[in-house]
Design a protein that fits this description.
The complex is a heterodimer of chains A (497) and B (685). Chain A is of the alpha/beta class. Chain A has one domain: Alkaline Phosphatase, subunit A (3-Layer(aba) Sandwich). Chain A has helices at residues 3-24, 27-33, 85-88, 93-97, 105-108, 147-151, 169-178, 188-196, 259-280, 283-306, 313-319, 329-341, 360-384, 455-465, and strands at residues 41-43, 49-51, 73-79, 132-135, 140-143, 156-163, 206-211, 239-240, 346-351, 391-396, 400-405, 416-419, 423-429, 437-438, 440-441, 448-450, 453-454, 475-477, 480-482. In chain A, the strands form 6 sheets. In chain A, strands 3, 6, 7, 8, 9, 10, 13, 14 and 17 form a 9-stranded mixed sheet that branches. Chain A has a two-stranded antiparallel sheet with strand order 1-2. In chain A, strands 4-5 form a two-stranded antiparallel sheet. The relative contact order of chain A is 0.21. In chain B, helix 14 (324-329) links the parallel strand 2 and strand 3. Chain B has 5 domains: 2-132; 150-268, no CATH class; 278-437, Leucine-rich repeat, LRR (right-handed beta-alpha superhelix), CATH 3.80.10.10; 453-527, Immunoglobulin-like (Sandwich); 532-684, Sandwich (Jelly Rolls). Chain B has helices at residues 2-9, 12-36, 41-66, 74-99, 103-107, 109-132, 155-167, 186-191, 209-215, 234-245, 261-268, 276-283, 289-297, 324-329, 349-352, 376-379, 397-401, 421-430; strands spanning 302-304, 312-315, 337-341, 363-365, 387-389, 411-413, 435-437, 453-455, 460-461, 465-470, 477-481, 492-493, 498-500, 504-511, 521-527, 532-537, 569-572, 576-597, 608-614, 621-627, 638-659, 676-684. In chain B, strands 1-2-3-4-5-6-7 form a 7-stranded mixed sheet. In chain B, strands 16, 17, 18, 19, 20, 21 and 22 form a 7-stranded antiparallel sheet that branches. The chains are: A alpha/beta (497), B alpha/beta (685). Chains A and B meet through helix 11 and helix 13 of A and helix 13 of B.
Chain lengths: 497, 685
């Protein structure tokens, strides 16, 4: 082993050790790791950030953008569970006419099934139990379940031809968030934190807000690795803001600690840490010092963002009165706007409960009510504040739902299984054509017939709007250069204004 | 035979460079040897001249054979060929002169060498012109074709010919017309080449020789442009096809031709970006990295729009300590600054004069700052301004009336300002292209108030229970009923705690001015004044859903639809039989059984239940029976209490037989499967 190798090996061991030390601190410790504004850091020779307490350091690993960006930030309203496109956006009257008839084999064309319907001996077609009306300047069909979204239809771009490769929740969500079905890659927000850094030195670049849907309150859980940093430095991990007294775990001081005590404790600790750094040279130690400082600053910045007491009544009238209830999707949408105003780069919301295998009509009514008004209000609120110009709002799930019924089919009820071949998303804001409908599915709502958009295309387009060429934005790990879009992805120029 | 000759002729490019290099080297040797006065060089020079002569002959020979190939301009070949002949002869002559020891001959050596150098230069130049084109060496500055509106563009002159110029003309020009084809003008194009007419050789528009050559696989010898040359891009091919489909019109404009949807994007991609930002970025001078870093160190977040685009965006949003010195420091690259965000900062009228030099501002964000109408006189000077955010400032109609000259303004944000509706109308009249970004007034008019929450420690009580009802919003009125009827604003108004003395279903609504009244919220409270000792389960619940065994039924805790919550007893494919022991003998006349139904999870309501009483715990007498039958088809998850009243009976022990459907009903997706019943509570009264 050459001397250089030995040095490299030593630094790896150090990193491993510091990682384990951090894990021992618990979730909060790891959470704090990603709260670091980039201007505290300088990229070290190993490609990781190292601490640099000087003001105005490197902002993200990208020295400058690949091309001028259209947007500064992204708000991703992830609809977890797979919302049914057929009840919400993709109007297919044929399915109502042929209700109960079998899905023709020529349409299904060998599509694999989930374990949940593979035992079913028939696939009876079923149309939406909810009506569709034309809305907006272009007469776009929107379901009666989404009255507020319908009113904002001229401001959003609906993509009806999304498709994915995964058929079950975990791989499908992981695919959307990291570009790979297997766990282990960085989430979109982590990539952006790594590439672009934070615009606000008092808040993390990547924040996460969760809410449970009323459509299926006990649906699939989500895993923290979905906002994980993968192989990137842990400081790029998403920070979850919880709907509780302590929005960020372990951020508040223990009882009896005053600001003075805290300050002198941090100063002393930094001294000790620095001593250790002089001995070992482990860059993670310097990161840690900066992380404590960041957490210190967040003790005021986080409560400031999370405290919505000052929001006037008319704002609650926009987002819906449940925005008053912490932890609801509406409350999270309101927080998303507040975070956007503070220049947080990537704001990820997850709303669970769209996985409606049975009793879909009942469940989706409640679920749509959870999100409709708040999603529309978010777009509207950003618009009146001038933020929509440089914010991209994304609304969509990990896959769609089948055009045939899973389980019981009666006049009033039916279910739908997972469907990866086509589903609907919408985007609004910075540089996306407003009022547009892109892509088309066949009259059975089963296959795409025009302008298919792959998950990687969607990711490439999002990066493009942020000024990043998805093919050039890589991270070398285990001898390979990784990208968010893996080895695929085309920017969907047709939807760009 | 000719073919073989041409084959050998293809070696011409290999040989031609030899005599050129060797002659030049010889000349250098000659000069050098005279400089250092070394006679021994002469032999070397003699030899190199011999080699030059031989290679010159080889080049001449192969060149002659190559000229048999068609496609070369005769005039150009004539010059190149005879120049080469002259060069070859003089080179051989030079060699002989060098060898000659005669004095008179020696004197001609240097002049002859200069002639040889002249000849080789000219020969090479003419040769080069044939292979690379006459304009290769001295590129004529061609006028750049700029298409701003593709619909107006000339299809042939502005779109097709530039592609031909770029990809075809180096071989198909007037001086080098391979295959006899020249592609420099419509007439030549129509005429075609040696292989026939180019554009309409075959019948049908796509069967032209032109497109056939383009579409041949690249390995094919006839593929055009030939392998090794720069190929046509997909867009270029699409454009050529589209032009041919439209009968290769030479004097049409784009809008006159039929355009399929797929072509629209290709055509648009030809449009040159003439937006203000594109023009500015072309003119922008480069910003040094250390200057940027210096600005950042001074607390000014600033960055170039991209690595190539040197325009600048400054983000001072949220900073409450902006100073005039900071703004002055930016002046050095003022023309580069196109965007500045000052929102939520300490920016004010006084600082406004310091951003005056940023004449190229396209985006100015002043939301939630202290600026007033006084900034108007500065704003009018930003003539390129495209987006202006004044939301949350105290500007009035006076300011926006001054914005007449800002003709490029596209978006303005005036929410929460003192601008009146009349002011907006006036503004729109002054700047018709401007979008005033605001929401329609009635967009969120009919928002429903959140239902109130009924709060209490328990759902069961023995004597009385205190309830409170809350709503999240201030200024809300709550109305309620206790008799099961739907409440409205004429029901009892909630003012203070409610005290319940009997089982009741409480329903409440919230009402607030300007809001739609809330939906009804409902909660049932059950009075239960009988004390129990224990419950003895005669049938065993499933291991996964056994709760606190028999106690689960009398713990006064309701289960939720999340049936793994531990408050349920679940029985798979069997009935529930249990004996409840009362603390003391009581008169009972009513029983309520709490059950769950979730057909998708194979859980159904019980089909019937039987109540028997006993005083000794051994001999039971049936006192009531209720049949509910099998559920009708549904898939909802739901809870219910099943009540039964019967003749008042004294009892110390009560036996309960709750019957399960045992099997999934016929309408279920898995008919006949072992079904479940879930029971959380039994209440006697």
């Amino acid at each position: 082993m050459s001397e250089k190798k030995i040095v490299e090996e030593r630094s790896l061991i150090l990193n491993r050790r510091s990682f384990l030390g951090k894990a021992a601190m618990g979730v909060g410790g790891i959470g704090l790791a990603s709260l670091i504004g980039n201007n505290l850091f300088r990229k070290g020779s190993n490609g990781l950030y190292t601490a640099d307490s000087g003001a105005g350091g490197v902002k993200g690993v990208l020295d400058s953008l690949h091309h001028p960006s259209k947007i500064k930030r992204v708000i991703y309203l992830f609809q977890s569970g797979g919302p049914s496109q057929l009840e919400l956006f993709d109007y297919k009257p044929l399915l109502n006419q042929r209700r109960g008839e079998d899905l023709p084999e020529s349409i299904r064309n060998g599509q694999r099934l989930t374990g949940m319907t593979s035992g079913q001996d028939r696939f009876p077609l079923v149309g939406s139990n909810f009506g569709f009306q034309r809305h907006g300047k272009n007469g776009t069909y929107v379901s009666d379940l989404l009255p507020y979204t319908a009113k904002m239809v001229d401001d959003i771009c609906i993509i009806k031809s999304m498709y994915t490769e995964a058929i079950n929740h975990d791989p499908a969500v992981t695919f959307f968030q990291t570009g790979s079905q297997q766990p282990g890659r960085p989430s979109i927000g982590s990539w952006l934190s790594y590439g672009l850094g934070s615009e606000n030195e008092n808040l993390p670049a990547f924040t996460v807000l969760l809410s449970r849907g009323s459509g299926r309150p006990n649906g699939q859980p989500l895993y923290t690795r979905l906002w994980g940093n993968g192989f990137l430095h842990s400081l790029h991990q998403g920070v979850q803001f919880r709907a509780a007294k302590d929005p960020v775990l372990y951020l508040n001081d223990p009882k009896g600690t005053t600001a003075d005590v805290k300050r002198s404790m941090l100063d002393k600790l930094a001294e000790l840490n620095d001593q250790h750094y002089q001995e070992s040279g482990d860059p993670e130690i310097q990161s840690r010092i900066a992380q404590y400082e960041m957490a210190y600053r967040m003790q005021t910045s986080v409560p400031d963002v999370m405290n919505t007491d000052g929001e006037p009544d008319y704002i609650y009238k926009m987002y819906g009165s449940d925005a008053k209830i912490p932890g609801t999707f509406a409350a999270n949408c309101l927080l998303a706007r507040r975070l956007a105003e503070k220049d947080v780069r990537f704001i990820q919301l997850y709303h669970m409960g769209w996985d409606q295998h049975d009793n879909l009509p009942g469940a989706i009514q409640k679920q749509a009510k959870d999100v409709d008004q708040a999603s529309a209000a978010l777009v509207a609120d950003l618009k009146q504040r001038g933020l929509l110009e440089d914010t991209l709002v994304i609304w969509g799930g990990e896959f769609g739902r089948t055009n045939y019924s899973q389980g019981l089919l009666t006049d009033t009820t039916y279910g739908r299984d997972h469907h990866p071949r086509c589903f609907t998303m919408w985007m609004a804001g910075g540089g996306i054509k407003p009022g547009m409908v892109y892509g088309e599915t066949d009259e059975f709502g089963y296959n795409i017939v025009k302008n298919p958009v792959h998950v990687h295309d969607f990711q490439a387009t999002m990066l493009h709007q942020l000024g990043i060429n998805h093919e050039k934005f890589t991270y070398k790990y285990q001898g390979r250069r990784f990208r968010l879009t893996d080895v695929e992805g085309k920017v969907i120029n047709d939807i760009l204004a | 035979m000719i073919q073989l000759g041409i084959q050998i002729g293809h070696l011409h490019p290999l040989f031609v460079h030899l005599p050129i290099g060797i002659i030049l080297l010889t000349f250098l040797l000659e000069v050098y040897s005279r400089f250092i006065a070394k006679k021994s060089f002469d032999e070397v020079i003699e030899f190199t001249l011999l080699v030059a002569g031989v290679t010159a002959i080889l080049s001449l020979g192969t060149g002659w054979l190559l000229s048999e190939e068609s496609g070369y301009d005769e005039d150009a070949i004539f010059l190149h060929r005879w120049m080469a002949v002259a060069f070859t002869i003089t080179t051989i002559l030079l060699y002989l002169v060098k060898r000659s020891k005669r004095n008179g001959v020696n004197k001609t050596y240097i002049p002859l060498f200069l002639v040889v150098l002249g000849l080789i230069s000219l020969t090479g130049h003419f040769g080069g012109n044939m292979t690379h084109g006459e304009d290769y060496l001295f590129v004529e500055e061609k006028e750049e074709i700029v298409i701003t509106n593709v619909q107006e563009a000339q299809v042939y002159a502005q779109i097709i010919q530039p592609i031909l110029d770029d990809k075809c003309m180096s071989c198909h020009n007037a001086s080098k017309a391979k295959g006899g084809l020249v592609m420099s003008s419509p007439n030549e194009m129509i005429k075609g080449g040696d292989n026939g007419r180019l554009l309409d050789t075959l019948s049908g528009s796509t069967g032209s020789l032109f497109l056939e050559r383009v579409h041949l696989p690249i390995e094919n010898e006839d593929h055009m442009p030939p392998k090794g040359k720069v190929q046509l891009t997909d867009n270029e091919k699409a454009l050529l096809e589209w032009w041919m489909e439209n009968n290769h019109c030479f004097d049409c404009r784009v809008m006159e031709l039929s355009t399929e949807e797929r072509m629209a994007a290709v055509l648009t991609s030809l449009e040159q970006d003439t937006s203000t930002i594109a023009v500015l970025s072309k003119e922008a001078k480069e910003v040094p990295k250390d200057w940027l870093q210096g600005m950042r160190n001074a607390g000014i977040p600033i960055q170039t729009l991209s690595g190539k685009n040197q325009l600048l965006a400054v983000n001072l949003a949220g900073i409450d300590s902006i100073t005039k010195d900071q703004l002055k420091a930016l002046e050095e690259y003022a023309p580069n600054i196109v965007e500045i965000d000052l929102g939520f900062s300490n920016f004010n009228d006084e600082l406004m004069s310091y951003i005056r030099p940023f004449r190229n501002l396209l985006k100015l964000k002043l939301q939630n700052t202290k600026v007033t109408d006084a900034i108007g006189k500065y704003l009018v000077d930003f003539e390129l301004l495209e987006s202006l955010n004044l939301y949350g400032t105290s500007v009035t109609d006076k300011l926006i009336q001054e914005l007449k000259r800002n003709k490029k303004l596209q978006n303005i944000y005036l929410w929460k300002t003192d601008v009146t509706d009349d002011g907006l109308v006036q503004l729109q009249r002054n700047l018709p292209n401007l979008t005033i970004q605001q929401l329609e007034a009635d967009l969120f008019e009919a928002t429903v108030l959140d239902p109130p929450t009924i709060l209490s420690d328990a759902s069961f009580f023995s004597d009385s229970l205190v309830l409170t009802i809350e709503n999240l919003f201030e200024g809300t009125d709550i109305y309620y009923t206790l008799d099961g009827s739907v409440p409205n604003s004429s029901s009892t108004k909630y003012e203070a705690n409610i005290i319940l003395n009997n089982t009741a279903s409480v329903k409440a609504i919230a009402v607030k001015k300007d809001w739609e009244p809330s939906f009804v919220t409902e909660r049932t409270f059950i009075k239960n004044n009988i004390a129990y000792t224990d419950v003895n389960l005669l049938t065993t619940p499933n291991e996964k859903y056994k709760g606190q065994k028999g106690k689960t039924l009398i713990d006064q805790k309701r289960g939720s639809i999340n049936f793994v919550d531990g408050n349920w007893l679940g029985f798979e494919g069997k009935h529930l039989n249990a004996i409840i022991e009362l603390k003391e003998k009581n008169t009972i006349s009513k029983v309520s059984i709490g059950a769950l139904s979730a057909p998708a999870s194979w859980i159904f309501y019980p089909t019937a239940f039987v109540i028997s009483s006993s005083n000794d715990g051994v001999n039971f007498k049936e006192i009531g029976r209720k049949d509910m039958g099998i559920e009708s088809p549904n898939a909802e998850v739901k809870l219910a209490f099943f009540d039964m009243e019967f003749t008042p009976t004294d009892a110390k022990y009560v036996k309960l037989q709750i019957q399960s459907p045992l099997k999934n009903p016929d309408w279920h997706t898995n008919p006949g499967g072992k079904s479940w019943i879930f029971i959380d509570e039994v209440v006697l009264n």
